[in-house]
Amino acid sequence: MTSLWADIVGVLPLATGELLERAGSSPLSLTLRTSDRRVLDFDYWMPEYVEPDSIRSLYVHSTNGRTGWSPLQELLYYLDVGSLDSLEHLDVTTNGRRKHDDEPLVTPSLRSAKMFNCIISFTGASILQRLSIVYDMNCPGYNGWRLDSPFDCLSSCRATLQELQLLRCLGLSADMEVYPPENSGPGVRLSALRRLDIGSHSDQVLPMIKRHFRYPPGCEVAFSALPYLQDGSGVPDLNHRGPDAAFYSALSTFADELLERGVGYKLVFDNSSPASPSVSVCEETSTICDEDAEPDVPAQQHRGMRAAHIDSAKRRGVLFGDNIFCVLAESFRHLEEGDDTSILENMQTLCVTSADTVKGFHSSVVTVFLKTKNLRALHMHGYDLETLKGLCENYRGLVLPELAILRLSAGTKPLSCTYFAHLMALRAIEIEKVKGAKRLARLIVDKDVVLADPEMEDVVVKKLTDLVDELDWRSR
Asked: What gap in Å lies between CA 401 and CA 306, rounded to an integer?
């Protein structure tokens, strides 16, 4: 019965001492909630009713917006009693902190730790499975965790940590070395890591992380290129080239990981989640025209997927429709000398997932395709009229002159085969104008593609047969 009371003692400071006493010696699950209207008196509540080493789960939520007061310092002082043997779950939300030099908590039983706008150091967490540290860019401490010293806590959980999220909490100073010296070790190997989420405006953060620890090939990695309008002091950050450079640097890093293992890669432009369009780097285990090739949607189903997200549209206050082509085209305008976009220029296989929810962005498609002139295989999973128009219409000349294979898979809307044939004819005209350009070696339209005008299918098939070397029409 005491264990039951330990889980339902209530939300402090509303919970009464009587409820706490009913829990007896059973490990407690505590929620501490403070605000401008409700301040928790640690000196009264905590020492009198709760022993720190009896806490199993601790949830702290502080929303003191006007006063700026936070219970975190008092909480850490209260918890500094030696080893917190019972603490398994820690979830803390505060108003932000500028200093992170507290003595680490000893937490041998800690399984999950989640921190929002704060960093709590800990040690001895040999069975930790999940760690999340996220900052709001308007809070003190944003980008305040120096990356040359924070990963000591990870060495003790190298065999158990499965999920790691670090957003807006990592900082780089001008005197730090991004790449390790020749005599440095390989860093901590997190052998159980399955998911890594990194968010920063700096193109140096990902290389620095790889200096400190290694993750297995099957680990899913997501890098978010975040705005850098201000640091924790409200001063513009001028030390790094910005999120656009960070975005392309992350993609190049992901591609290099595969190439170092002797594995080819393909890119996936993913619009399946309109709120978060991304570019993923995946192993190229089969060609897009293989009979058993799996659809590349959604990209996050790939084991070991590497994805990069960019916040260009929202950062600049312009509505681009949350489409990856629009975001990429806009990013080209803000790149500086030395920024590396070779990951796009050198790619030969691309898969595009589309929801076809945005109109009028085919000019952005053209801009991106002009950058990817070495592309040889394109798989469009999702009928996307704007992307097809960008591929085939000729107002800026021929794009993708090396394209040999085009494959269409099911989309959210029926495909007008008549209009599709018209677009392919426009592309054929442009191919004839360019010396050395060749028409498609193979066009594949999967059987899951629904036709808007099935009565025209026979006529269209005959027309397409004359435009490509090999036509595979709805046979798979």
From this structure: 28
For residues 232 and 137, give the distance between their C-alpha atoms in angstroms, rounded to a whole number.
Answer: 7
Other beta carbons within 10 Å of 376: 15
The residue assigned the tokens 């990429």 is 328
Check residue 87 and give its pLDDT. Answer: 94
Element (H, E) at 259: helix 243-260
Query: Letter for the amino acid at 77?
Result: Y
Report d(CA 417, CA 452) in Å as an integer: 7
* 196, β-bridge pairs: 164, 221
**Amino acid at position 105, single letter:** L
Residue 220: strand pairing partners:
195
**Per-residue pLDDT tens for 238-247?**
445 678 888 8
CB 121 within 8 A of CB 139: no
Residue 286, token pair as written in the block? 């089969």
Q: Are 230 and 137 in contact (CB under 8 A)?
A: yes
Question: Can you give the pLDDT at residue 235?
Answer: 39
CA 199 vs CA 248, 310, 431: distances in Å: 14, 10, 42
pTM of the model: 0.83
Q: Which helix (H) or strand (E) element contains residue 445?
A: strand 442-445
Quickly count: other Cβ atoms within 10 Å of residue 373's Cβ. Answer: 14
Q: What are the percentages of helix, strand and coil residues in the chain, rounded to 5?
A: 25, 20, 50
Gyration radius of the chain over CA positions: 27
Tens of pLDDT, residue by residue over 286-310, are: 666 655 555 444 444 456 789 998 7
